[in-house]
User: Fold this.
Amino acid sequence: MRRFHSAPRIVMRYTTLGNTGDTVSILGCGTMWFADMSQKETDRTLNYALDSGVTYFDCARGYGDAEIKVGKAIGHRRDEIFMATKAMGRDAATAGMQIDESLERLGMDHIDLIQLHYVNYQHEFDEIMAPEGALEAAIKARDDGKVRHIGITGHRPEKLADWLRKWPYETVLFH
Assistant:
């Protein structure tokens, strides 16, 4: 008689995320593809990830309805997750509106990490750093308790490394 064994239980490892002081799983879950999945598939997938020890979930308003699906799928387990999302706006008014929209779409009272998203060129960095730039909105959202940490994303690691010398972003995410 042939015997089948169940798959081994995943043993997740954890680490401190950037300069946040928060501990997260070393394996994170990006949510871009959930825009193409049903809510039922999203629920099953995200809860499986969470049950397997994944605690870091990364979303963005630009991922279609992914924020809405993520919030519906695991929002009830808010105390078990580290929720990151992104704002593309370069000025404070737009970025602030995007942060508020993300909170509403996720159905959460705060975001653990807001990332100023897809900053690749000096003029974009200058825009977010300028008076009334996106960084001001992120700082205000942090001061108001809407977000806990502020990060930056882009596709040019050499520029991101240089920009860390200009302001102490707590995380850097690149492609």
User: Anything to note?
Assistant: The helical segments are 39-51, 66-74, 92-106, 122-129, 134-143, 157-163.
